Please model this.
Amino acid sequence: MKNLIVLHGALGAQSQFEPVVSQLSEHFHVYTLEFDGHGKKSAGNADFSIEGFAQNLKDFMQQNHLQKPLVFGYSMGGYVALKLESQEANTFEKIVTLGTKFGWNPESAEKEAKMLNAEKIEEKVPAFAAYLKSLHGEQNWKTVLQRTAKMMLELGNKPALTADDFHRIQIPVQLLRGSKDIMVTQEETIETQSLLGNAGYREVEKWQHPVNQISPKELAQELLSSYLPG
Model:
C-alpha cells in the first residue's frame, strides 16, 4: 500500500480527520500530523507561517522515512503541501487539495482575519467556540485564532505562493472545491489550475468549506477516486 499524509487546515487539528482516516486506512498507510501550535501541540512560541508549516511537514516525512508519499491537504494544508513541493520538486507523488484559498491580497486577508475574533465568536457562534476549544484546549484556542489572523494578514501582503512557484510544480495535482464554499472562489481555484503544470479541477456539489460539515464517507470516496482512478 502507498503512503498518504493527511493535513489539516487553519484552526484545525489532526483529530478532525479520524473518521476519514479509518476509511482510507483500508487502502493506504495513512499518516496525520499536527502543525506547530495546533491541537495537542502548544501554541506557545510556534511559528505560524506557511514556510514554518512546510518545514513541519518536511521534518515529519524525514522522521517517518516517507519518500514521495501521496498527500491530501484540506484548506491551508493544501497550500502548505504545494509550498513544500514548489521548494523541493518531487517531494510528493500527487497532491490533492480541498477548499484551499489561493487568492490572497490585502482585502481578502482583512476579510478573513476579521472573522477570527474570539470574543465575537463566543458571543455570536458559541457552538463554534466550543468546537475550537475541543480541538485546541481551553487555554490555546484564542491564541490559535490570533496567530492565524496575523498569518492571514501577512499572506495578504505577501502570498507564500507566487505564479512562479506554481509553475515549478509539475507533479499531478487535483484541486477540489465545494460548490457551496463561500471562502474559496471557483475563479481563484481555476486560475491556480492554469498555473500548475499538471492539475485537474473538480467542484463537488453541495459541499461547504468547513470540513466537519462534509460526510467522512463522501470525503474518503472522493479521495479514493482522486488517488485510485478507474
Remarks:
- The first helix runs from residue 18 to 24.
